[in-house]
Please model this.
Amino acid sequence: MEIWDTHVHLDELSNLSYAVNLALRHNVTHWVLVATGPVAYRRQSQLLATLPSYSLRYLRAIGLHPEYDHSPEALLETARIVEQEPIAAIGEIGLPTYRFLTRSQFNRNWHAVYIQLGWAERKDLAVIIHAVHEATEPMLRILEEFPNLHRVVFHWLKAPRDILHEIAKRGYYVGITPDISFYPRDRHLLSLLSPQRVILETDSPWPHIGHRISSPAIIAQLVATLNQIAPRSFDWMGQTTLNARRLFGVSSDL
Ligand SMILES: [Zn+2]
Model:
């Protein structure tokens, strides 16, 4: 049994060893650890060193999160980490929706997005995109300038139907969260996607409705929910695992 949570903010989980054990008990065996910048990345490294050698398997991602402000040195520090550390993906990077930016903040993020996409292209890394609602379309236009980037996921996507079709047509992936149990909007979005484009994520520790403590273990419930939603019996666990492996370029030995 193998289940992936493709978006975990490890440094923000309050009780890490409990979360790891709980996930493993629910067969959520693989986590993608997303660092919002160099500070989060270093904190994650410290925490990983404290974990006993569980059978948790993980990949690491780093990128300057567009909803946060970063120090002027952050981009250079991130570049260093991408060069020196075992990084599987750049992200989450993209365009903000939930905060107001001054012109200089906007320009700085815009510039950083191009630089970071350039790293992904040069090093052939996966890309985790944060660009929801009205930010999705401009992000797609930016990605048109990177035709060699194919391993791209729009994490926790909320977007209009025609934009979703364009994402799928380009062969990008879409991250689905446990919110699908509660929001008709998310179910509708899923109904427009082929299962080959779907990967699963919690964005832990984000407190999803119905979960006082959100942690990667709840991906097991999400798989069960998907199995009920699908009109015919479909192997969501197998398909989303295969998709995650393809997206992150992982062979069978992880
Ligand atoms: Zn996130």
